[in-house]
Amino acid sequence: MNRKKRYHHSPKNRKRKFGRRPRVLKIKPGADAGLKKVFASIGVPDKKPFKPDPFQLKALSVIEGADCLVTVPTGAGKTWIAQQAMARIHEKGGRSWYASPLKALSNTKYGEFSEIFGGANVGILTGDRKENPDAPVIVGTTEILRNQLYDAMHKGVSLSTDLVILDEAHFLGDEDRGVVWEEIMIYLPVRIPLLLLSATIGNANIIAKWLSSIRLKECIVVEETKRPVPLYPLFFHPSGTLFPLIGRKSSGKSSLHKKVSDYVNSNPPPLLAPPHKLPPFGEIMGALNKYRLLPVIFFLKSRADCDHALDLCVDIPTLDENRRARRSKRIQELVSQSPHIARHRQLRHLEHLAVGSHHSGQLPAWKLVLETLMTEGLLDAVFATSTVAAGVNFPARTIVLLNSDRFNGRDFLPLSPTEFHQMTGRAGRRGMDHIGFAVTVPGKFMDIRLTAKLISSPPSDVASQIKINFSMALNLLLSHTPDQIKELLKKSFATYMIMEARKKRRARKSLEDEHKRLWQDFLHHLNFLKDTGYVTEQGALTADGIWASQLRVDQPLMIAQGFRLGIFPESDPALLAAVITLFVNERESDDTIEKMFKPKMLLATFHKVKTSMEPFAKQMTDQGFEVRPLFLRPAATIYAWATGQPWEKVLSVAKMEEGDLAMLILRTADNLRHIRALTRVFPEAAETSARSIELIMRYPVVIEHDI
């Protein structure tokens, strides 16, 4: 974790550490007089019959004869467009495919669409769930849709659908998963209309032009920049006084409100809490409550901060005396079939203080309880990491930012306009609020000027994230020659962007030069596949290459090599699950484990696999390919779980948070599903992997979807 890139809210802070110590002020709720009119507008809009917005009607008109990219603010009503477009296809007897980036979001949409179209007409495909796969309306993850396109190309058939909807299409620019979105856009048959639903993106017209060029049909952008609920930015002074963040505009430019500017320029500025301490959230909530700014989502930098924040809360008085009773009753309903959740250490905060912590370190069942309560208006505050801004739908009246940077898994980097707008998109509930608020709270890692700038910043551009991996190479070789793949790669968004850039510089270079990097990377993978016997010298898949292509996982060659060497325990489901986890785990591990959790059979198998795989792993690393080290602890963890150890004991072996353990189990199950498909080549392993999945996919990892 690189903290050197983090910054204080003003460059002057570099000098302040040698000056006077800043004061920690006592919070006394107050508001600038200029906010009186703004706060007077707070309230619940009158119920009106639904009337589609012009952009929604335009999108429906466009998709009748062309591809369509809809780019609108979060919460503006993208799903309604999808519902109507699918309804039109359904009425004609056609089929629709709705793809989303998250399993949780897919589950939510599956429930919504089942109510609209009837359960018999809707299916879901997420890896974890496969229900009614031949239904006229399919909801699933983008990876499943991409894999179906691989299969269709291999069989020489067209995907059996009449409309594809890619939700959260701005994921095209996601560093880790954007390649899946781009592959779908490249492989999708032209006859199938493509409806892209996205948050606001800066270069929507460029993406549409690229799609028009590779699909040989027009892609029309439908854009809406106006938020459905207006956003008002506030500043929370350490004294407890709320100020407008932005002052009067001069020369067409936004500037900080004078009182906020005075605070930023003070030396040293007063603080809400001592250095390295969290602010008094209960008192902050009290101030927000005085001006009817609850419910609120606090965005914090870490999971630990989200959990610790709960202990800094106090009961917030509410005018509705029955609210706590209703919340308690609803909680009991939600956890009645979940004894593990009923014992959750944060249940007291949830029930008695109306506050909760939401982050990826928690079990899906617990997060679902929080999301349900927040959506139903039974919570006052949720403390969340920025990941909740994408893909989870529980907006609030107010969001509070305590950091102007975000940890991306490697470094702390300043918030991008897109990340900022995703967070502020949760402020203001359509149909429930006239206005939403984004509150900036000063602190060590809050750049107040940056936050003010982001309010009016245009959305970020989306860049291509396409990259070659072995799964992609094997699956393209299933249905294409290397020369055909070369032509296919010319359709990449990366190639298009380079071409456009060079056109602007009036450079006259051939298309061959434009996609040279991508093609060279493919050749690098191809040559390794030839050297290791997965591809012939002529560029066709060998028998091993054909079955290895079905391993659409992160490390297909490592798993394939294990089968080739015959070192996997193909008849022991618990042991097979433990071994496959070795190739799923991405965390470094301390392998000092209690003796009772590393039985001789597990140890012997682990050492056999690790030793046998070393030559192949070295061959890969020598050629510049990444190979993750193999650790015993993840295998011991999954083995303990697969052999029936209690959840609490398994957690003690794993030494990780519940949500991380659940994710490790889910990813292991996903890898096992691909092995289950190898019935023809490895029938015993395929049958055993099915039993492995049954052993590990159980409560509390698996939850009832009708909670």
Chain-wise SSE layout:
Elements: H1 13-16, E1 30-31, H2 36-40, H3 54-63, E2 67-71, H4 78-91, E3 96-100, H5 103-117, E4 122-125, E5 130-131, E6 137-141, H6 142-155, E7 164-166, H7 178-187, E8 194-198, H8 204-215, E9 219-223, E10 231-236, E11 241-244, H9 258-265, H10 281-290, E12 296-299, H11 303-309, H12 323-335, H13 339-342, H14 347-353, E13 355-358, H15 364-375, E14 381-384, E15 398-401, E16 405-407, E17 412-414, H16 417-424, E18 436-440, H17 448-455, H18 470-479, H19 482-489, H20 493-504, H21 511-514, H22 516-531, H23 543-548, H24 556-565, H25 573-581, H26 600-622, H27 632-642, H28 647-654, H29 658-676, H30 683-696
Parallel strand pairs: 1-11, 2-8, 2-9, 3-6, 3-7, 4-6, 7-8, 10-18, 12-14, 12-15, 13-14, 15-18
Antiparallel strand pairs: 4-5, 10-11, 16-17
Helix pairs in contact: 3-4, 6-7, 6-18, 24-26, 25-27, 25-30, 27-28, 29-30
